[in-house]
Design goal:
This protein is α/β, with parallel strands linked by helices and 411 residues long. The chain has 2 domains: 2-183, no CATH class; 198-298 and 333-410, Carbon-nitrogen hydrolase (Nitrilase/N-carbamoyl-D-aminoacid amidohydrolase, 4-Layer Sandwich), CATH 3.60.110. The chain is built from 12 helices and 10 strands. The protein has helices at 2-36, 42-58, 61-76, 92-108, 116-126, 152-163, 179-183, 207-210, 216-232, 253-262, 311-321, 379-394, and strands spanning 198-200, 237-239, 267-276, 279-288, 291-296, 336-339, 342-348, 364-370, 397-403, 408-410. Strands 1-2-3-4-5 form a 5-stranded mixed β-sheet. Strands 6-7-8-9-10 form a 5-stranded mixed β-sheet. β6 (336-339) and β7 form a beta hairpin. The radius of gyration is 24 Å and the shape is globular.
Amino acid sequence: MTRKITTFKTNHTFVFDTIIGLLTALLFSAFIYFEHWGISSKLVNTLFGLASIALFLYISKRAILVAGFFIGLLWFYWIGYSFEYTGVGYLTPFVSLGFAIIYLLFFGVLALSKEVYIRAILLFGLSFFEPLNWNWMQIELIFVESFIGIYKYQLILVLLALSLPKYLKKPYKYAPLALLILAINFTSHEPKASDLSIKLVETKITQDKKWMRESLSSTINLVFREIEDAIDKNYDVVVFPESVFPLYMNHNQLLIDKLLEYSKHISIVAGTLYKEEGHNYNVTYLFEDGQFEVAKKLVLVPFGEYIPLPKFAQDYINEMFFAGEADFQTAKRATDFNIKGVKFRNAICYEATSSKLYEGEVDFMIAISNNAWFAPSIEPTIQNLLMRYYARKNNTIIYHSANYKGSGVIK
């Protein structure tokens, strides 16, 4: 009888921990799905964000592991979608499971202690850590569309406000919650927009057709039509998505000549590929006043454009699973375009969500993306939220052109 009671209690605790862990993950991830579904409430995002942080500080160790696992799924289930287009689509569910396990371990460090103050310190430490160089898990991001600010000092205030009540007695037990007032974002982000008239083109070319030879002619014609429309409407600049030209532009002089001719009437920013000395580059071209510049990508996508592992493992995985395609090279530094006298930092997709691209004076950024790799999913939503996060931290305005979803001015 005693054994049955013990087993019942164990099973009951396991179920309870699983439910609490899942609830923590849902609260921590809700702002993404609200944004994706067009639901906007700063109050709800604030309450859910604070509740998820509080739960991480107080729930059981097992519940923390459950929460980390489901956060990995809820945030990054879509990463494996791109593998379908590199001939290894069968890996998709394993990639999703892998990210769930990575974030089980990521948040699992909180389970090393039951002490709330230690968990608060560890959680703050996690806000600096990027597993496998993948930086899309930003703890402060949960507050990007809330009343709470997104700076480190505001995260510290939140952690202090939620952890100190554990160590105080009445009548001052909940007094630390007043610190949340200091964590509120009282400043408004209103940087001055560029005086240029910029047309941001959003294409809808599915990834399975994008690289097919028979699709090239229609894609080029689409680009030409958009350029001509922008000229007719007196835009100063027209911006196209990442790899809108699915070819090595520097090996297509006829296309370059055509774009140079258009550039006498309008500045053109477009993504494409570049091959030089046997190396592949993901690049942006700027055509302006009958001349062009090329900006090479600085920050590559882990496991998409490079393998973040030792050299021997890079070569094996690249050949075994990516048919040698995950071998892009990088620029040595970020590139700024001077378009009609205005400086724009160039960013290609993942770069626009990297702090490296915001180093120095970056008032304006032109970002181009191809989100069709992950369609349909919440990827464009997370990308947009991250761009807002970096734009607001750096007082930058981002002009974003994307294939699939995400085009617009972000600030």
